[in-house]
Structure formats: C-alpha cells, structure tokens
Amino acid sequence: MARLEIYVALLRKWQPAQNLVSPKTMDQIWRRHIADSAQLVALFPAALRWADLGSGAGLPGLVTAILLTGRDGAAVHLVESNQRKCAFLRTVVRETGAPAMVHEGRIESVLKHFVEPVDYVSARALAPLVSLLDLSEPLFASGARAAFHKGADFEGELREASKSWSLDLVRHKSMIDADSSVVEILRAERRPAG
Question: I need a labelling partner for 71 at 20 to 30 A (CA). Which of 65, 112, 120, 163 fits?
C-alpha cells in the first residue's frame, strides 16, 4: 500500500505538467485507475512476467509491478514512446522499487527486438482490439497471453477483430466498472488473407 501511495503522490505531482490521466478522473484515482489496474494481479495471480503496451501513466503496468514487488521472477516491461512519460515511469520505478523496466520507443520497434519471455501482455485505453492484436503478435508467437481492459464497445471491437484473427478468449467482468471487462486472450492466430 505504501508503494501505491508513493505512485499516486507522484502522479498527482506530475499531472499538471504531463496530463498523465484525464483531469476529470483525478478525484477518483484510487477506484478508477489503481483498483481497475490491480484487477490483473487478482485475476492472474500466477503471472509474474508482463509486457505493458502504451504504458503512459503506468496503468495498468506500474500498478501490476508494484503489486508484484518482492515476488521471485517478477518483471514488468513498460513500453512507451513519449519521452516525458518515460521519465515519469522511471521516477516511479526508482521511488517504489517496483520490478519494472521502461522501454522507450514505438511499440512495433521495441517488440521487434524484444527477447524477454512474458506470461501476459497488457494494455488499457490504448487502441481497438484489432490494433492490440496486431501489436501483440510477436508476443503471442512466443506463447504469451493477453489481458486487455475493454469498455462497453467490446462486442463491436470483437466483431472487427474476428475478421482478421481467430481467437480463444475469456471475458472477465470488471470488478470496478459494470460496463467494462478484462479480456483474456488465450490464443490469437492471424487468419489467412483473402
């Protein structure tokens, strides 16, 4: 809890200059951002190695890393292209001692050379499902699963993604927001073109 409090204090301090999260959500930070992100550790307690795409303010990746602090083999790779957000992420990692590494660069470029094994790939408020699948393809190829936070429009995103991807997935209802889900991708294979 102390590490999460350090993170929230840093988020509040950096928010005015960096606009890390929507300003209108700042007074609901614990429920809307921290608890929502913490669901991943509750849903997948055995998963120790994560790649978090488009980490931004560190949601859910930094929260995952903070909650895994002290567990043998825990490692969360935070992938973010914005230099100032990377500076924020590095500051939080240093101040909390969370088992996280910041990879600065575009997701496609970072994952092209990414060799670390991961159990799960995560993303929250980053892109539609089809784009997340495209970005995560190198990680799926090495056996990773995915856990993506999705909102009320998930069914439409799934229809679109199913045109180019064959998927096995489990939709976990959000413990925080009745209109949201954590979508666990067990298997993702690109459909043949044509």
Answer: 112
Count of positions (residues) in the chain: 194
Per-residue pLDDT of the chain in tens (194 residues, 90 and over written 9): 999 999 999 999 999 888 898 888 888 999 999 999 999 999 999 999 999 999 999 999 999 999 999 999 999 999 999 999 999 999 999 999 999 999 999 999 999 988 889 999 999 989 999 999 999 999 999 999 999 999 999 999 999 999 999 999 999 999 999 999 999 999 999 998 76
Distance of CA 21 to CAs 40, 68, 109, 157, 161, Å? 19, 23, 25, 23, 27
Q: How many CB atoms lie within 10 A of CB 79?
A: 27
The H-or-E segment that residue 52 falls in is strand 49-53
Edge-to-edge strands, sheet with 100-104: 100-104, 75-80, 49-53, 120-124, 145-150, 181-190, 165-173
Which ranges of 103-153 does DSSP label H, i.e. alpha helix? 107-112, 129-141
Burial environment of residue 186 by CB neighbours within 10 A (0 to 12, 13 to 18, 19 or more) = exposed
Q: Is the pTM of this model over 0.85?
A: yes
